Amino acid sequence: MTEMSNHNEGGNTVPDSKDQMVKGSAWMTAGSIFSRILGAIYIIPWGIWFGSYFFQGNALYGKGYNIYSFFLIAAIAGIPSAIAKQVAHYNAMNEYGVGFRLYKHGFVLAAITGLICAGLLFFGAPLFDGGDPRVVPVLHSLAWAVLIIPVMSLSRGFFQGYQQMAPSAISQFVEQLARVAYMLGSAFIIMRVLHGNWITAVSQSTFAAAVGAIAGTLTLAWYYLKNRSTFNQLVLNSNNEIVVPAKQLYQEILQQALPFIVLGAGITIFQLIDQYTFFNFMRSTGITSMVMLNNLFAMFSVNANKLIMIIVSLSSALAITVVPLLSEAYTRNDRVDISHQLTNAVLLFEFVMIPSALGMAAVAHPLNILFYGTSHKELATAVLAFSAFVAIMLGLFSVTSAIMQGVSQNKRAVRYFAVGTIVKLVLQWPCIHYLGVFGPLVATTFGFLVANYLIIRWLNQSFSIDFPSIAKKTNGILAFSLLMCVVANLLVNLMSRIFGMFMVVDSHWGSLFVLIFAVGIAGYLYVYLVLRTRLADTVIGDRTNRLRTMLHIK
């Protein structure tokens, strides 16, 4: 358990925060990315088995999941991140016993909020269907996951408070693996073996969230039992100078947790605004067919969103890592360390998000066909490419809001998000009326742009972000990313022509071949450039030497 070795018995050893951030980010990013990839790849066979009902089924799935996501965040209530932050706070003071008591009281809270929110979602489903009664059975199936996941998420927060990211990342992957296995198995049996109802198949696909939650919880329990002796040793060697009453522990958890609900649900809140306004606002453009409206909704809110959240998860994984590290520095009142961590966080975000977003936009055409087929392919490709750029704003908000929580500015972050939400609401109708399916994406971009600007401005005023250093490295990241984007786009066009002589390019297999070539070559180009110029060294440290050796780059 090397992650714990940074804290000595007196609690005086200060860990290398940049090294911890990169190490923690690597684990959380790996777990999040693999989980997101699994959560996207399943759509290929799932869509084939749904056949002509694919877009309708995916739209229904998205409607249910957006509502479920909000209830889940309310059930979790930000308690896992609050626990991670407070456990890290007490661990920095060598008061591990207090952190354990926090976890036990948080466990009770998570179980209660899970039960309440699951009940509200199950029995109140008809109130949230937005006029589509087919959503009700989907919400009923999702309520079981709301019952289980809060306790699982709480346990992840406990491990993160110790800078132990591996248990969280691995349990996240196991959870997704079990979920996808159940989704595909149930969809195949219902749609292909029994030739059943597609609404029933969607309901079973969403029930898979509960199956995954059980698997993820069992994984965390195994990690806890495996390391229980080490945890007990840390508690025995604590200073034990602080006695915190149970009432105060509950107050600390709730004070830290409640703002996490709003900030953690930030992206989901914007998606719910889209879900409850898009259909009515689009009718003002002359489109009245419910099938067509569902297809358009599926394009931007479900299909594109599922893919861009793979790259957004890069930054959200980073955000989860930043919170306990910033909390420790804030507890020590080390403003220099806070400033350095802010700079590192921004650079690490840019280093992974900018090339990912530009790369996805460049290969949007084969990527969309691989996952969603040729239905409305030109419009769907344009929506996916535009969504890739929107992802930068979503990812940046995940990072900046987490940073604000790490420096105990939860209420201020909520206020800034509220301003961004107002901007989104004001722009929603005119954007949809004049830009159609792109309208919600434009309104979302401006909403998060305002929220991010307000947060970054305050952080700079309070802790002095090193913008000159960031700007210099950002120029390099942007230049290499743009070059990679151009190469990827050229390769997509070239490979499409070449493969077009041997196979149907606009097919799953044809698109897969094009993607492998384009992403492989363009991705390697970016990696080569950042390693060859030593730009990567300034962002992620000396670990790049091993990578340079493996790739034979001098």
Automatic annotation (TrEMBL):
InterPro entries: PG_synth_SpoVB, Poly_Biosynth_Transport, Polysacc_synth. It is found in: Cell membrane. GO terms for cellular component: plasma membrane. It comes from the Bacteria. The chain crosses the membrane at residues 33-55, 67-84, 105-126, 138-159, 180-199, 205-225, 257-273, 307-326, 347-367, 379-401, 413-429, 435-456, 477-499, 511-531. The keyword Iron does not apply. Pfam families: Polysacc_synt. Its main location: membrane. It is a multi-pass membrane protein. Keywords: Cell membrane, Membrane, Transmembrane, Transmembrane helix. This is Polysaccharide transport membrane protein. It comes from Secundilactobacillus mixtipabuli. The lineage of its organism: Bacteria, Bacillati, Bacillota, Bacilli, Lactobacillales.
